[in-house]
Amino acid sequence: MELRERIGEALKDAMRAKSAERLSTLRLINAAIKDREIALRSDPDGDTVGEAEIIAILARMIKQRHESVRAYEEGGRLELAEKEADEIKVLEEFLPRQMDASEVTAAIEAAVTATGATGIRDIGRVIAELKTRYVGQMDFGAVGPLVKARLT
Questions:
Q1: Domains of the chain: which residue ranges?
Q2: pLDDT digits (tens, 9 = 90+) for 93-138
Q3: Residue 4 region, left (φ>0) first, then alpha (ψ -120 to 50), else beta?
Q4: pLDDT value of position 46
Q5: Three-class SS of residue 128?
Q6: What is the dihedral of CA 3, 9, 14, 16, to 10 degrees?
């Protein structure tokens, strides 16, 4: 089943179950996807929002919520931090399985080989290669230092 269909079905299920928090998060996902579609309509070369684009939107939303959780915890607003953490759980349901450390290392090796990277100057090309192949499957904030260590 396509990711957009899965989100739609989850939205309907949340409505039936009268789960207000889950429904709210799913509506935020749909709104973010629709915003991206509107932005693409104004672009003459714009396509429709595909699977990879939806995964990128979800990853961005998760990153924003992690930052919010950190800020709320520092500010002593634990109830708001918990709400954000609950939203993260709902968002993560739609992302592909995260790669473990050995899979990330193998992916980095494959990307280094595919791009012909030889030095520190090639970090951007390697990370761009990883982003095209493994969107939503790895934390690129953590991958950057690994790629740098591999190329030095």
A1: 3-92, 101-151
A2: 888 888 888 888 899 989 988 888 888 888 888 888 888 888 778 8
A3: alpha
A4: 61
A5: helix
A6: 180
Neighbours of 112 (CB within 10 A): 19
**For residue 105, how far is the Cα from the chain centroid?**
19
Under the banding of pLDDT at 50, 70 and 90, the label for residue 47 is low
What is residue 45's three-state secondary structure? coil
Domain boundaries 101-151, corresponding CATH code: 1.10.10
Report how far residue 131's alpha carbon sits from residue 117's, in angstroms, rounded to the nearest whole number.
Answer: 16
| Mean of per-residue pLDDT scores for the chain | 87
Q: Within 10 A of 142 (CB to CB), how many other CB atoms are there?
A: 10
Query: Is the domain covering 3-92 a CATH 1.10.260.40 domain?
Result: no
